[in-house]
Design a protein that fits this description.
single chain; about 90 residues; mainly alpha; 3 helices; elongated
């Protein structure tokens, strides 16, 4: 593998579809962040009724993180489909 290709793929990243791997990595990071937030909020094992400001903020953050994860996943799927079509016709 040439130095240019190695830079494009990044260290430790398998060869092929750099955009796909970037999207998957971004989605994994979003999911890990979401998991950490949920774990931190519920570690005290107390149910908040009515929802406290922390829970409301967490809910907004969860919605934003979930939206980002879904967009990343759609981007990864779109990149995969684009590459398969390009491979089939190229």
């Amino acid at each position: 593998m040439s130095a240019e290709n190695e830079k494009a793929h990044g260290a430790g990243m398998p060869p092929g579809f750099p955009e796909l791997w970037e999207s998957v990595t971004r989605a994994r990071m979003d999911i890990a962040e979401l998991k950490g937030m949920v774990k931190m909020h519920f570690s005290d094992k107390a149910h908040h009724t009515p929802p406290c400001a922390t829970a409301t903020g967490l809910q907004k953050t969860l919605h934003a993180a979930m939206g980002a994860a879904i967009i990343s996943l759609l981007s990864a799927v779109g990149t995969l489909i684009f590459e398969l079509v390009r491979y089939a016709h190229g």
